[in-house]
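subagent[fold] <- orchestrator: predict structure for attached chain, return tokens only, no commentary.
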Amino acid sequence: MLDLELARALHEAGLPWEPCEGDRFILPDHDLDGRVFTISEMVVEVRRSPVGDLIAFNGTTEWALDAIEQAEAVWIPREEQLRESLGTALLSLARLGDTGWRCTYRASEDLREVETTTAVDAYGRALLDVLTSD
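subagent[fold] -> orchestrator:
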């Protein structure tokens, strides 16, 4: 799973999110630190409303929260979602023996690399750089 602080940074950098079943998210500033939620038609679903998308909780949780605005949730993208978001900026992902992963990508027309211990974090850090590069 993507590092939660990296997920927050991607959220703050404006990574667009169209919630769908299976997506994971956190709710900062709701006294729910460390709890990861998953969108599922059975428990948590997205409802369209005139004021915007709402993430609705269907009464199976132990705390009273009917729905929140999507903007309050921080999406935790999966590896394949990060790869898709990188699009043509992504050039390669390579295993570095037992130490981690190297992602090679383009940002602001520059060839760049980032090395991390997990593939998902390598994609996430590369995407954050692409989103925040001038």
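orchestrator: received. Logging for downstream: The chain has three helices and nine strands. Strands lie at 24-26, 37-38, 44-49, 52-57, 67-69, 74-76, 90-95, 101-107, 110-116.
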